[in-house]
Design goal:
7-stranded mixed beta sheet, Quinone Oxidoreductase, Chain A, domain 1, Rossmann fold, about 325 residues
Length: about 325
Amino acid sequence: MFKVIYLTRENKQFSAELKTLDEAQLPAEGDVLARIEYSSINYKDGLAITDKAPVIRKWPMVAGLDCAGVVVSSNNPEFKPGDRFAVTGCGLGELYWGGLAQKARLNSEWLVRLPAPLDTKRAMGIGTAGYTAMLCVMALEKHGLKPGDGEILVTGATGGVGSVAIALLRKLGYRVIASTGKLAESDYLKSLGAAEVIDRAIFSEPGGRPLQKERFVGVVDSVGSHTLANACAQTKANGAVAACGLAQGMDFPATVAPFILRGVTLYGINSGTTARPLREEAWRRLARDLDMAKLDAMMREISLAESLTAAQEIVAGRVRGRLVVNVNA
């Protein structure tokens, strides 16, 4: 028997509950049986568990985009019993039973073996949010941006993506400007490496000019909507913007002016379906380039049962950093 966060929709009625299942109820698909040690709550998990957006594409569903744990048995010789791994995205919690569970049957193609010094708890301190932040940083690097070129803006700075992005960029030598609606968290953001903290109202209001004063050579945006539009309008000529979220909205009320008059490049970051070589490279980079002390400082551990309430908190914007779920607590 094992516990899960179980989501159902029957006769248009949605429910989310902590439920005990038998191992025989696990889906047959997947060549790895795993014992989960930790999961996490991402913004998308919050939307799924609170039914605020149509995240789930197959019912019933075990929630959780992420999981990290230990292989129990495997039909793939690449993974052996006792191997520790992480999975982020890959359809977990949407198309396939997810990681907010004590056991899971997984496709070995999704698994990434954890590089030192990451253990399963820190891996879920990173989770989809931190992994997405790493992909954003790699996109800016691929564009050719280097420390010393200018300031990098990080929006939604107190969230999971923003917190990890700040810590990564600072360790790599960039000057980071953090945008947040929680100015009371300025000390927290500066402890992660932000050189300056600014009010998100500068970016979140509608009606901004298509081209504004140039300030940033790069942007990591997890907010979308007017914030993304205004961030693009303040990006310097030939700069780059990595867009990975929609906390403010899915719309993009902008013009083509930053792209054709300043040569700004907009990179869309999809962390859910990246090819395995890129996933492995991103995890190697996280193990090398993320300050583990700063990661620990942004993590808050909760139990599996507490994830139901935590989902409401993250959607309401009341969560700082990363929520790590000890599924066995």
